[in-house]
Amino acid sequence: MSVAHIMAAGMGGIRTAGDLVAWMQLTQRMKITEAKEYVAQKLGVNVIDLVDEELMHQVRQDLNIATLPMIADGATGMVAKCRIAELLGIELNSVNKFKSQLDFSK
Amino acid sequence: MKNKIMTRMGDGARVELSAEQVKEDILTGTQDAADRGKIPELNSDDLEQLFDIFADTNRIVAVKPGEEVITTDDGAAMTLVGDQADGGVALPLSMMQSVLTFERVCCADTAGIGHTDYSCKPVKPIVNYEKQKYYTLNQVTTIPLMYGMQPNLGQYFQPDGPFPNPSELLPSGKIKEAREAQEEAAEQLRNDLVFVAKSLYEAGCDGFNFDTAASTGDADFLAALEAIRELKKTTPDMAIELGMSSEFVLGLHGDITFDGVRLAGLYPHDQLKMAESVGADIFGPAINVKATKSTPWNLARAVTFVKETVKVADIPVHPNVGMGVCGLPMYESPPIDCTTRAAKALVEIGKADGL
Question: Which of B350, B349, B347, B346 is closest to B310 using CA atoms?
Answer without folding.
Answer: B350
